[in-house]
Design goal:
The chain is of the alpha+beta class. Helix content is about 35%, strand content about 20%.
């Protein structure tokens, strides 16, 4: 069953779902645009789109009737009247209060529901990837793996963090990536203690750890990987930190399976890091789901008590960050199965010295 039909089955005849947010709009139509509305009723689905995208949408969108939109709110009200709809559900979690009030006013006399039931439905639907979605994510990860292999021979003391980042991004796009999953992180030396540091004009130095967090996009689906490599040589302290992070990742990955509680997986990795003497040096969640957006649900964190389902695609990315010295993060992306998981990431995770 496709995603639109799943929504239809949850609606009664008096209700419709209106989707305006980009990620959910793409999920329901397979069409990437900066504007537009999806209206789903019990029996029909419509994609209202302006002139800029109309021609391509007509050739691309399969599960919704494409409508050239000039006055979307008037058209939404007309379609609701034709379908006997008096109640509209929206994406309440992604709408600001001001946007919700504006939408309510412009759709009168329709009733705009404050219920988040369809937000939750869409979140849960998107969390379990179909075979085609998984294939797009795997293709994106293959481009990411190729980019890592490429950049290893190009990290040296003549280059800056920013130059390495730009080299990686250009190469990934040259391989065929639709774009980048997010702004790449390339940080070195003391900068590597910043989990989400921004690439600077700092030159790479011997003895640095270089942490690279990056991903590709294929047909709207993203990948995410982090690798940390050493330049020239490493100290005993650096080796201990690296191996601790690597062990934490391996232990967490081995525990991932359908039915596992997300907070339990996080605890496995966090306990290893804390027990090695680095308590307080791992301040972020262990991982997040990936798909149309780079951060989706569920997540591996101490506060997430959701259980994993077969079909989830989620990262495992422990790290240790020692302020003003260095940091290490190693991240894989895994596909959850009934009895375990499959690691989608193929790049080596052992300590590499370049």
């Amino acid at each position: 069953m496709n995603s639109v039909n799943t929504i239809k089955n949850e609606l009664d005849r008096n209700s419709a779902l209106l989707v305006s947010g980009g990620p959910n709009r793409f999920y329901l139509t397979g069409f990437n645009s900066s504007a537009g509305y999806v209206l789903v009723t019990k029996n029909y689905a419509y994609f209202l789109i302006d002139f800029r995208y109309y021609e391509k949408a007509c050739k691309t969108v399969k599960d919704c009737k494409v409508i050239l939109s000039k006055n979307p709110f008037d058209e939404i009200k007309r379609l609701c009247e034709e379908n006997g709809v008096g109640n509209i559900y929206t994406e309440t979690e992604s709408l600001s209060l001001a946007d919700f009030k504006r939408l309510t006013a412009r759709l009168k006399p329709l009733t705009v529901s404050e219920s988040d039931s369809f937000d939750n439905l869409l979140k849960n639907m998107r969390a379990v990837k179909s075979e085609s979605e998984l294939e797009y994510i795997k293709q994106a990860q293959r481009l990411t793996d190729k980019t890592f292999s490429y950049i290893l021979s190009r990290i040296n003391t003549e280059r800056t963090e920013r130059e390495i980042m730009l080299d990686m991004e250009f190469y990934m796009r040259k391989l065929g990536s639709d774009g980048v999953s997010f702004d790449f992180i390339v940080v070195s030396g003391k900068n590597s203690s910043l989990p989400h540091g921004v690439p600077t004009d700092k030159r790479i130095e011997r003895g640095d750890f270089v942490t690279m967090d990056f991903g590709a996009v294929v047909n709207g689906y993203r990948s995410d990987m982090t690798r940390t490599v050493a330049v020239g040589y490493i100290t005993d302290e650096q080796r201990l930190v690296y191996n601790t992070v690597l062990n934490a990742k391996a232990a967490a990955v081995s525990a991932v399976k359908s039915g596992a509680v997300c907070s339990d997986i996080d605890k496995i990795a966090r306990d290893i890091i804390n027990n090695a003497g680095f308590e307080g040096c791992f301040g972020h969640a262990l991982g997040h789901s990936v798909g149309i957006e780079i951060h989706e649900s569920p997540v591996f964190s101490p506060k997430c008590n959701e259980t994993l389902k077969s079909g989830n695609v989620i990262t495992v990315e422990p790290g240790i960050y020692i302020e003003n010295k260095f940091g290490v993060r190693i991240e894989d992306m895994v596909f959850v199965t009934e009895d375990g998981c499959r690691d989608i990431t193929e790049s080596p995770d052992e300590l590499l010295i370049v």
